[in-house]
Amino acid sequence: MKSRGKIFLIDDDELICSMLSRALKNNGYEIRTETKGHDVINKIRSWFPDIVMLDIKLPGKSGIEILEEFKSNGIESQIVMLTSDDTAETAVKCMKLGAVDYLTKPFNMDEVRIVIDNIMEKEDLKREVEYLRKISCSLFERELIGESSAIKELRTKAEKIAEAHVSTVFITGESGTGKEIIARYIHRLMYGEYASGCAPFIAVNCSALPEPLLESELFGHEKGAFTDARSDKKGMFELAQEGTILLDEIGDMKQNLQSKLLRVLEERTLRRIGGNEEIPVDITVIATTNRNLSEVLETGEFRKDLFFRLSAFYMHIPPLRERSEDIPLLARHFLAHYSTKYNRKTIKGFSPEAETLMTTYSWPGNVRELKNLVEGFVVLENTEIIQPEHLPRWMTGESVTSGEHSKDRFVLPETGISLEELEKDLFIQALERAGNNKTLAAKLLNISYDSFRYGLKKFGLG
To answer: Are 102 and 55 within 8 A, CB to CB?
Structure first.
């Protein structure tokens, strides 16, 4: 059986050591015991226990003295004091010296188990948050690539927002424009100066989860709140404490959750599902959407009061076609990135003709489409310079500056054609042009999203 944790027990009463050891071992913990306070620091350092249970009265050296030595020697184990004295003065003194709890003799074994289990649960959550912090730090964009006036304005606004340490930010823009990149940039500016490490950045896709699951993920739940709630669970808001939560595609959030989110933003507290406790949250909330806000506000799909609460600090990212001067810079940035990632240094750059075609292309999939295109070049092409012939056919055969597609009539070949194969090819082209964004691909074919999904299933395209 996997160990639930390691506990070092220090008590001069061998009967107590035996009783506690047996009970905690039965509960899944590894136990080591010591009846004297001499040299316990070196023994603890060599074993790295999660918890040290320390008796206050020991022969030769008191538990208080040992606790003070733990503090001065940087012992990171959680300390639980064992005492026959249940006065508040003793408890306060132990807590000031770094103990997390204390147990009074004679022991109630149920109380012992609860104290130990609670400490281990908090340690597990601390490790989980630390893991999430490390992941989020590795994903930070160090800068916003681009020299267009739009990017310069976004950069300046992000710096002001981060300096003021605002509590809510609303970012809009088409799919693939880089809304999460801007969110991470703000987060890095806001929290990156702390020497203790990265503050958590938790991203939640509001359109990817059904409403009941999204509510549980955001707010957490108490044990027994619903059928599968076998234990208490912290939600993303709690895990993002003293950091940032990104609510991606908030425009797809259902009305019921919108009202609960508004309450959290207004009161800065939340209740887990099935719980009564008001839990304070100290976080920055960044919300994004690619939807047309005027439409969803008009139809009532998105609450106006929530929009007004979020949009005090509002940022809009223009599509890539409106900042064409950024395209060469981004292409070179992605080329350097993927050349390093895949250890392929074959491609040195882009020809002027290729850059011109890329600059005049409409980029319906925005920065994501450009990023995917360059990644494909690095992996698949063996040329030193990307030429026009290496670009996709729709990029070289379309006059993007006019914004119009060719109106020539399709000519049926004399040998005929498979209508199903033609339809499948159009679905594939739409996905490629949209950078695999299904909503945008459906718009390119002028069909509903549900019809597009049916076609994907029909042709085995996902």
So the answer is: no
